[in-house]
Write a structure and sequence with these properties.
By secondary structure, the chain is α+β, with helices and mostly antiparallel strands. The protein is 31% helix and 22% strand. Strands 4-3-12-7-8 form a 5-stranded mixed sheet.
């Protein structure tokens, strides 16, 4: 007598025989969704682990995020930065994971009745990952393919197993022939549920550990160790003017709110703008700087080769084109490096090379007229920033710095190639995204102090910075309410390439006051009052602050 006959069970087969899970009664939708999310987490964790083993490069998720940035940075840059500030990149990573898990939950629910759905959905996601890795110079394609394949297998397998547990065994009604009445055995749904949540939790925990391990493996090559062993060569060729003393205007300087910006912006306070989801960690041993394109003698330099060339130190103010009037996306640093002209002479620039394009290890590009590298302005392959090797965030091991041009057309970080190109037909990263191809930095000025609604009455300084790199600042004027424009005292500068601190003593009287500032550059041009947005070639207008002065 077989068991079925003995017990008269009406148990339905739920395994291999049926094509899809039986979710005929009340499908445990929430549990299937959780199964989908947990399986997706496992897939992501395995993919991150395997692709992270390539070491130092972009994992699958980072490659996908990078291609997302490249695709949508045009329309999304401004709102993303406005919404998340410099946390926009972590926000993107978290957002990607959350959206993927949510999609996984949907696949978990819909896939219970459609066996083909999970393999198709996971497979499609894997292909997106591989395609992103192929397009990402910092991703390893073989590791990405292996990560995607194993991730898909792990995800589909986990989903199948968890879904089965999620649906559970159907209720078993048993009629024992030896008794008079049918007995309904509890189907032990509680045990099923416990088992399901146990395994789903284990899958989630495994995913977290695998993902974290993959990320840790990926960030193995960290440039901090390399940086700390580097001694920058002493700059030669120029005499370095002593740094204008901060405080010479009698105003406290510092990087916090309520202080005048120091003449030199400390590296850790220097604004950071780039498209890199993760700061590229460049391995010095294999890094080369190529000089190529329309040149007679293309060549390559190692880091040691670059340091062995004569170095100069130049102080240059760098600004982002996205800087709003009064904004913080501007800084002034002393850059150590090799003049671009040195490298161009060695390479021999050919006729028709109207554009110098900087290319970074992660594929970012920025181009400017080749003449800017030879017309006498500061134009460097910089290796040092304020006396230290370039910080990783600011382009270690080398970047371009060109006086008077916004960063997006000039200041390529993590530089890997200088390519001499025609002006027409070659566009840097931001040009097809709606930004001007030629972008000299506009004359601007900013009020740093005072600010807020508790300015003590009496004599207080109105002070800030003004810049017109390449032209220099010859005059700064301040207006209080509708009063006359008054000339501010100017700080000393090392050159016209840098910003200038300015200060006007003010006898502040209680009440609300509007303070305005405008600068005049070295050619006698006063910055325009007309307000324009940062796009396509830099914001204009006068910075104003409203403050409230209170009796002390
Ligand atoms: N490789 C790379 N270099 C880059 C960018 C980038 O996205 N990638 N952004 C540019 C822009 S838009 C600016 S404003 C400057 C900012 O330099 P910083 O981050 O050192 O202040 O870097 C430029 N160099
Ligand atoms: Mo920028």
């Amino acid at each position: 007598m077989d068991e079925g006959a003995h017990t008269g069970a009406t148990r339905e087969a739920t395994d291999a025989a049926t094509p899809a899970l039986d979710v005929s009664d009340h499908a445990p939708t929430a549990r299937l969704a959780l199964a989908g999310a947990a399986a997706t987490a496992v897939a992501l964790g395995v993919a991150e682990l395997v692709s992270g083993l390539s070491g130092g490069d972009h994992s699958l998720l980072t490659a996908v995020g990078t291609s997302f940035i490249d695709r949508f940075s045009g329309p999304l840059k401004e709102p993303a930065v406005r919404l998340f500030g410099t946390a926009d990149k972590p926000a993107l990573t978290i957002g990607m994971v959350v959206v993927t898990l949510a999609l996984g939950a949907v696949v978990g629910v819909l896939g219970a009745r459609r066996r083909w759905l999970a393999p198709v959905a996971f497979g499609a996601a894997g292909l997106v990952g591989v395609a992103s890795a192929v397009a990402d110079p910092l991703a390893s394609v073989p590791f990405a393919v292996a990560g995607a394949a194993l991730g898909v297998l792990a995800g589909v397998g986990t989903l199948r197993a968890l879904s089965r547990l999620a649906v559970g065994r159907p209720a078993v009604t048993t009629t024992r022939t030896v008794t008079e009445r049918p007995i309904e055995y509890p189907s032990d749904r509680r045990a099923d549920r416990r088992q399901f949540f146990g395994w789903a939790g284990a899958a989630g925990a495994f995913a977290l550990v695998a993902g974290a391990a993959g990320r840790a493996a990926g960030s193995r090559s960290n440039v901090e160790a390399a940086r700390s062993t580097i001694t920058l060569p002493r700059p030669t060729g120029t005499t370095i003017a002593p740094s204008p003393a901060d405080g010479m205007l009698g105003v406290e300087t510092g990087t916090g709110a309520g202080k005048l910006s120091p003449y030199l912006t400390p590296n850790d306070a220097f604004y950071r703008i780039d498209t890199a989801l993760l700061t590229p960690q460049v391995d010095l041993a294999s890094w080369r700087l190529k000089v190529a394109g329309l040149v007679d003698r293309p060549f390559e330099l190692s880091y040691a080769d670059l340091l062995a060339l004569p170095q100069v130190e130049e102080t240059v103010t760098l600004s982002c084109v996205s800087n709003e009037v009064g904004g913080e996306l501007v800084g002034n640093a002393a850059w150590t490096g090799v003049p671009l002209s040195t490298l161009l002479e060695r390479a021999g620039v050919q006729a028709g090379a109207g554009q110098l394009v900087g290319i970074s290890v992660d594929g970012f590009t920025a181009g400017f007229p080749t003449s800017a590298a030879t017309d006498g302005r500061v134009a460097l392959v910089a290796v040092g920033m304020n006396g230290e090797p370039l910080p990783a965030d600011h382009g270690f091991p080398a970047r371009l710095v060109v006086e008077g041009l916004y960063g997006y057309v000039s200041a390529t970080k993590w530089l890997s190639e200088i390519r001499l190109s025609p002006w027409e037909g070659v566009d840097g990263y931001w040009i097809p995204r709606g930004w001007a191809k030629e972008a000299p930095i506009k004359t601007q000025s900013r009020i740093d102090v005072p600010r807020g609604n508790a300015v003590p009455a009496g004599r207080v300084p109105i002070a800030g910075v003004a810049w017109a790199p390449g032209r220099g600042v010859s005059k700064v004027e301040v207006q209080v309410d509708d009063g006359p424009w008054q000339e501010a005292r100017l700080g000393e500068v090392r050159s016209d390439a840098t910003w200038r601190q300015w200060m006007l003593p003010w006898d502040a009287t209680p009440g609300r006051h509007r303070l305005r500032v405008r600068a005049t550059d070295g050619t006698g041009q006063t910055q325009t009052e007309a307000e324009s947005r940062p796009d396509p070639d830099g914001a204009t207008g006068w910075h104003e602050r409203t403050v409230t002065v209170v009796e002390t």
